[in-house]
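Notes, p. 3: input format for complexes.
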Amino acid sequence: MASTNESELEILEFWKRNKVFEKSLKGKKKSYVFYDGPPFATGLPHYGHLLASTIKDTIPRFWTMKGYKVERVWGWDCHGLPIENIVEKKLGFKNKKDIEGMGVEKFCEECEKTVTHYVHDWESFIERLGRWVDFDNSYKTMDLDYMESIWWAFKEIWNKGLIYEGRKVLMYCPRCETPLSNAEIAMDNSYREVTEPSIIAKFKITGKKEYLLAWTTTPWTLIGNVALAVKSEAEYVKVKNNNEIYILVSDRLSELNGEYKILESFKGKSLFGLHYEPLYELSSEKKAYQVIDDSEGVTTTDGTGIVHMAAYGEFDYSMIKKFDLPLIEHVGPDGKLRQGPKEWIGKWFKNLDKEVISELSKRNLTYKVQNNKHSYPFCCRCETPLFYSPLPSYFINIQKVKEKILKNNEKINWYPDHLKEGRFKNNILNAPDWNISRNRYWASAIPIWKCSCGEIKVIGSIQELKENALNFPKKIDLHKPTMDKVKLKCKCGKDMVRTPEVLDCWFESGAMSFAQVHYPFENKKWFDENFPGDFVAEYIAQTRTWFYYMLALSTILFNKEPFKNVVTTGTILARDGEKMSKSKANFSDPMEIIEKYGSDALRFYLLSNPIMTAEDLKFSEKGVEDVHKKVILILTNALNFYILNSSGKEADLKNKTLLDEWILSRLAETGYEINNFMNKYDTISTAKEITKFVDDLSTWYVRRSRERFNDGDADVARTVLKTVLHDFSIILAPMLPFISEKIYLTIQGKKESVHLEEWLSFSKKEINLEIQEKMINVRRVASEALMLRDKEKIAVRQPLQSITSNFKFDDECKEIIMEELNVKKVIFDSKIKELILDTKLTPELEAEGFAREIARKIQAERKARNMKKEQRIELKLFVSDKLHNMIVTYEEFICKRVGSKKIKFVDEKNKNLVLFEIKEEKIGFHF
Ligand SMILES: [Zn+2]
Ligand SMILES: [Zn+2]
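Output follows (927 residues plus zinc ion):
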């Protein structure tokens, strides 16, 4: 028999050969629009992609079967730092100077080549997973058409007055020399615990022998200090300690070493305007080096209640602006010191920490130096420590459109729904203006041209560029190298040049809904009719990025929500709960898992897990193995059972038994529930229904019907089983595309593939609750009685006289119970409290027990010899004299079961005998 892997590979071949995916898109009028969030093609696919791909395949398969045309075009995110960093690493580049040295044009060419490097690996991985997607027509964010749509959007937003150029304090990577957005930093969890020296520095009050104590975890910023801030209403104290006089907030006296004496206490505001001597004098402006009021920013829960201000703090820049203090950027954009003590010029900012500490200590200007454990952000691309920097950048004014963004969020159906009013809404509420410019190379050029006279022109299409360019390029390309060369004519007569920045690549992925169809230059009618899309899915971190940027852009451009339904998954962690990491080897290769258990098992494991409601999942191979065992193999066994018994004619289903009625009712119920759950994007509940039904089908229906397949009732049983397998394969298809196909093809469904079938809708009328209730009671009594047998150590093969129950069963139910429990009678007695199993063995019962046991041994031997069901044998049997008469009465019983005409009793000495013992009686057979 083929392994799961082999059988799945065959089905993949079948789909490919017969173009089943393409066929599933044909002949349908209504669209169900699916948007694929573009992954970066910067590495091989991992579990995260596998998770996303699973849900991105399951939901479209469902809506396809419901009669919709669900196009699934693949997208590639091609631009931005991820690609640039790969190229830099490959070329051994250390910083931007290396790129400029090589030439931006060559560098971008190299990036373009690298983008497609992993495409093939992706395709084969996604295909093996069973995800249907159109790679041939995939969109790339670096395509000319795509980029033109981006320009169109940029100009629209510009014309609405929502783009401005300003300085804002942003997280900045001094190696990549570009700001990063908070979202980018938060998304990849770029904060790490580090232990670094922190310092309480002494700032001498001008003209006095008194010091203000200020604490910082970034000593290198002390070089550019311009002010100290206090909280106006907080209580500050002047203390004598170590023979010196210090000022700090009274809540933080614990920072002092040794004994101290409080000399005076006062409100923070009485310190305002106080001048102090700078540690490093870089400014001669009078306003610098004073105490200022920052009641919001200063806390009294850490440090000293006196905060040192420099250009490189998250809130400092706003204070510097507010108090009109000098802006000293003593560290350059390359992260190296450019202003300060001569001997340190050119040093890397992080290396300045220890220089500053030792130099200030020599001058007796440090109060305390300690190692401090805190979390610090690193560049998610190159792992360089970041710092805050007040950078000139272009922004989209999110604050102006926030109300509308919130309103459009109301229209989206979130799964799980708590994200809508919870995490996602909070992200919107807290969203800063969107920094859309990057000081990098490989991305869409920002279409802003400027003139020295102050005139600004924004271009929104290639045609418009042609009309305005002095030197329109021979080969049009909207990337930086080509666009940097293009000049426009200004009204004033001078040349306009392009602003050097490129666009944040999140702007591009956020624009995929319209840019992938080159809107509005092409497909305008289609887009207008099909926007918003119906469905997107990604993992939880995208609530900050892709989902958010999609919504922000569609609100500004169309004042609509971008998609109607969104499924948000959690994050897959390694089995130890840590991030999956190659160096820790804490996870198995996804391909190995697929080869071992199949894609179906892996998909079902994920779809049935709370990870589908945005919770994290510790990936467990055992979990996949369980699904393989409990769902895939059991279904395979049920199918094999059908194949074994498939010869025969179809029967009229008028003569259904209770068991038949029951399984058909359960099928209808399962189909009905699954339809409801799938409509709500709830794959967890769908998976539960499937598991329950698989169990009912195999451990009850098929098992209880085995005998029927041997007698006159066989045609009915077979026909019912076929109907069930057929219908169930259709219901299974979106969640388990392989095994469902295998079942459907094996039982010869009418269509070419189960995935070309129409979805089955069951009505409540088809569910027979009365029968289901009956069967629940039958199964309850059966399982209780089996436990009693177990307790008494009486095998099920040993028939017993009766069970007595206080539940009144009808004859059909009694029949099932008698067969299941191997008892001769089911008795009703309303007076008893619990089930009674009569365990007395009469000689007849004992004889039947022997007969059944012997028959079973022989059947097992037949199976071991791979004998076909219809193959006859000539049974030779040895039994003791004591058993002989017993067995003779059961000759027909045994013969029917093992396929022999009669029994030939033989002597023990017959050397061919297979010998065994039952209840210490020696028995032997051969055939
Ligand atoms: Zn970096
Ligand atoms: Zn001009």
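DSSP finds 32 helices and 33 strands in the chain.
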